Amino acid sequence: MLQVGLTHFLVVSAILFSLGVYGIVTRKNAVMVLMGIELVLNAANINFVAFSRFSGFGLGGQMTALFVIVLAAAEAAIALAIVLNIYKQFTNVNIDEIDHLKD
Prior knowledge:
The chain is mainly alpha-helical. The chain is built from three helices and no strands.
């Protein structure tokens, strides 16, 4: 019978983190970049909860993960508001094509 241990959680977290970084680096759409950031934050949450569970830190990991979830929700709301304003201004949300904000 397979026992799920800390290594399994760390592998899943590493895969999520890698997919998130890949999404951030390769995508030109601002919404897709935000989804990559969310994947990175979820990978960190898995690490917090797994280390809290398997290292005996008590509820510290869960509380930190809850804080990260609240932070991610606030980040998503503000970032989507910015993306909507950029779309209204330029009718485009591609990151490479909205460099006119400096002007």
